[in-house]
């Protein structure tokens, strides 16, 4: 017991690499699936029954653990994350309408893609850009090009020799 506590205190938590946990679909453990799970688990434990007396605790535990995990993976499967669709068809239609409202003859940005090229084939543009936007939204990472922009000085009213009489837009 004392040795176990010492090992717990001496173990470093920060250095080990954490493997993301995959959860099993335990909600499937009802009815016929539960019976399949029991049968598969019994079949996996049957060869282990003769080895139990000869093994040390660590080996025994690793065999039990692997039997359970293999059975869960085979019968239950992993939970799949379901992501909510954050751009609905209604939003996609709004994006397309706004794209058509954009003025013709605008200069291309730092990406050198003119607005007319984006509007030339709206369906293809939306098909390729929506998954990209979804990845950016979920991951929080975006292309380096999106940080760049052309800064243009727009004069305000007043003395144009003074810097505060300009505003910058990108």
Give a quick rundown of the structure:
The protein is mainly alpha-helical.
Describe the SSE topology.
Layout: H1 2-10, H2 32-45, H3 57-76, H4 89-101, H5 115-120, H6 122-139, E1 152-155, E2 166-169
Antiparallel strand pairs: 1-2
| Percentage of residues assigned to helices | 40-55%
Q: Based on helices, strands and strand pairing, what is the structural class?
A: mainly alpha
What is the overall silhouette?
elongated
- Global Rg: 30 Å
Question: How would you sum up the major sheet?
Answer: 2 strands, antiparallel
Q: Give the number of DSSP strands.
A: 2
Helix count from the secondary structure assignment: 6
| Number of discrete domains | 2
Largest sheet: spatial strand order: 1-2
What does it look like?
The protein has 170 residues and is mainly α. The chain has helices at residues 2-10, 32-45, 57-76, 89-101, 115-120, 122-139; strands at residues 152-155, 166-169. The longest helix has 20 residues, at 57-76. The relative contact order is 0.07. Residues 1-6 have low confidence and may be disordered.
Keywords for this structure?
6 helices, 2 domains, two-stranded antiparallel sheet, 2 strands, mainly alpha, 170 residues
